[in-house]
Amino acid sequence: MNAIDETKKRLEIVKIIVEEIKSSVKAISLGGSMGYGQNFSVSKDSDIDMLVVCDIQKIDELLSKEYFKNQNLSEPLLLYKLKKINVFWVTQIINEIEVNMFIYEPKAYIDFCTFKNDIISYKKGNPSITGRGYSFNGTLLEFNQEVKKTINGYIYKKPSLIKGKFWDAVPRFDFIFSQRILYDPEKLIEDAGSKFWRETVKLLIKEYGQNPDLNIVGPLHAHWIYKNTPNRLPAGFKEKVIEKTKREIEAYLETQI
Prior knowledge:
Elements: H1 3-21, E1 27-31, H2 33-36, E2 48-53, H3 59-63, H4 74-81, E3 87-94, E4 97-104, H5 106-113, E5 119-123, E6 130-134, E7 140-144, E8 148-149, E9 154-158, E10 180-183, H6 188-208, H7 224-228, H8 237-255
Parallel strand pairs: 2-4, 3-5
Antiparallel strand pairs: 1-2, 1-10, 3-4, 5-9, 6-7, 8-9
Helix pairs in contact: 6-8
């Protein structure tokens, strides 16, 4: 199959899942290759990464859906309800395709995307002690994820900022033209994206002034895929990000006059 056929195959799976769970959640989007590479770089090996924002009060209802059958989620469910974690994910294999559903608590999702707070994740497998991400100038930054063992898995932390400076991380990464919003009736994801860009350019101006050279610094150069496998991004991606960053800088500076 080519990228168009592989994309179509995955969208058929996504459509069924969205219809099943949307009544229990606040928002749903696609990230990963299905966020930035539909009909272009999606291959037979591509998985499906779904971001789901769900209130604590609705989490039991969500986990009762067919997608979650035969999953032992008692520990992450309890930790989520107790606000010990802000996100956990559940993997299923559907029609031989890996589907990863990342479930975020709404306030924690918004706060992390707008650089207000760290985010705490749960994972059954042992995560790396060291986390990594790129800064505005493309420097690879490292940080301690503060991994802690639980009974059946691990808790670990991603910082909002690294030593007070921007770094790109999922789910913020998605706002750099790397997501497809599937369900957002309250515009939660859309609004978080607007706030992400405003806060990003504020940090960029703080580090590099009001007229940074966007061919050298900026959110483009922090984008994980752009830094590592840019051939997976569609034509015009670089130009779109630079133009978006310019517009956001101009809009922010106008508010400071």
